[in-house]
Write a structure and sequence with these properties.
The chain has helices at residues 2-19, 22-37, 40-61, 64-75, 79-106, 108-115, 124-151, 154-178, 182-209, 215-249, 252-290, 295-327, 335-355, 357-361, 367-390, 393-417. It has 421 residues and is mostly helical. It is globular and about 55 Å long.
Length: 421
């Protein structure tokens, strides 16, 4: 019986990991197409879109979707309580996102002139408007994945992943290749395609769980999620700060070249996220049950993730030049300068992310925003200083430096709450 359970868990873990690579499939297939149809400047516009939709997704979630992912394990045995938690989560997200969208729309000119140096090229219509819309779908996508993964509903989890990829592919083909609308076509088509899939799943959840706010669950979501939202927003800015700073120091063309390096290195990020998505429910459950008793199992999982990421980084750096030659043209040759630095920088993020599990275990998520604020300030300081001496590559070096500093900060603070090596 136990062997059957182990085989089932291994099968599920393998499938979740493979599904995590679906975005990579999209990136591999479409990056050469984007580079063929888009100039570095147009590709830079696409990167600005990615940057600010990523940041806004953190704002729109208000930490609620992340809080659901952890609170799920407190209610998963009681289906009635879980239903209340899900219904409350969806209702709170819909209300908060509606308010935030209208705030962004009313103050659109103020925001777009403040956040984007190239506001003459990256205009509010259609780019800024879609930046406000796209993250709404991204937040619900994350929530639905949390739910299906934790419930062990592998088929519907797969359906959400695969259908999203199919619709994004169709949309991109229409917008970029058939209509030849360049960056605008890529952004409009992605938003429409993504919206159709996520809206369909949202209707399914509303029909099944309803729309109501349970006061007790709402308080829990806010209490647990509020520190997360501050951390998530700052973390979203920190995560995209290299591209934000390069757009500030240079132009959309340079951002497009650097953005290609980021896309290539995103193979490692997707690899890590796939492993993390597959193993994190198991880790959190083991930590919740008895962290000391399950210490060996937790460490084995952590070591598997770390070693897998390190192998991925080494392989990517080794084959980065042939990949760049294969998928791009001479306009993007400078991207090879950035790839090794960006890849190595990601290793620090992996160590920090895994060590941060302690903060969730000990309900000390209020520490996370403080760490992110330190990261934000350090990256800005190092970027300005290094940019003066060595140009925009100084921004990349600043990320590398700060990611390594972050490892020691997270370890030092986490060990104060619970020493777990």
């Amino acid at each position: 019986m136990s062997n059957v359970k182990i085989n089932k868990n291994l099968k599920s873990t393998l499938v979740y990991t493979l599904l995590g690579f679906l975005p990579l499939t999209f990136a591999i297939f479409f990056t050469p197409i984007y580079l063929k149809y888009l100039s570095p400047e147009e590709y830079g516009k696409l990167n600005v879109f990615y940057v600010y939709t990523g940041v806004l997704a953190s704002v729109y979630s208000l930490g609620i979707s992340q809080a659901f992912g952890f609170l799920y394990w407190d209610f998963y045995k009681d289906k009635n309580q879980l239903k209340k938690l899900m219904s409350t989560t969806i209702s709170m997200l819909m209300i908060s996102q509606t308010i935030l969208f209208f705030v962004g729309f009313v103050f659109k000119n103020f925001f777009i002139n403040i956040i984007v140096k190239s506001s003459d090229d990256f205009t509010f219509y259609p780019f800024g408007l879609l930046v406000l819309i796209y993250p709404i779908f991204a937040v619900f996508y994350e929530l639905f994945l949390y739910f299906f993964r934790n419930e062990g509903k592998l088929k519907i989890y797969s359906l959400l992943n695969v259908s999203s990829l199919v619709f994004l592919t169709i949309g991109s083909v229409i917008g970029v290749i058939i209509l030849n609308l360049k960056a605008e076509g890529a952004i409009v088509s992605r938003t429409i395609a993504y919206g159709l899939i996520i809206t369909s799943f949202l209707i399914y959840f509303i029909i099944k769980y309803g729309l109501r706010i349970d006061k007790e669950k709402a308080i829990l979501l806010i209490k647990f999620g509020l520190p997360l939202v501050i951390s998530s927003i700052i973390g979203g800015v920190v995560y995209n700060l290299d591209r934000i700073m390069i757009e500030r120091f240079s132009d959309l063309s340079q951002l497009g070249i650097y953005g290609l390096a980021v896309v290539i290195v995103s193979v490692i990020e997707i690899w890590f996220n796939a492993l993390n998505n597959a193993f994190s429910p198991m880790v959190f459950k083991l930590m919740k049950d008895d962290i000391k008793l399950n210490a060996k199992k937790i460490r084995v999982i952590m070591h598997v993730i770390i070693i897998a990421v390190l192998i991925g980084v080494v392989l990517l750096i080794f084959i980065s030049k042939p990949i760049l030659t294969l998928i791009s043209n001479d306009n993007y040759n400078k991207a090879i300068t950035f790839i090794p630095l960006v890849a190595i920088s990601f290793v620090g993020r992996v160590f920090s992310a895994l060590k941060s599990y302690i903060f969730y275990k000990e309900s000390k998520t209020k520490i996370l925003p403080l760490i992110q604020i330190v990261n934000l300030l350090l990256i800005i300081i190092f970027s300005y200083i290094l940019n003066i001496f060595i140009g925009i590559i100084g921004v990349v070096y600043s990320i590398l430096i700060v990611r390594n500093i972050e490892i020691f900060i997270v370890k030092y603070i986490a060990d104060k709450y619970l020493y777990f090596n």
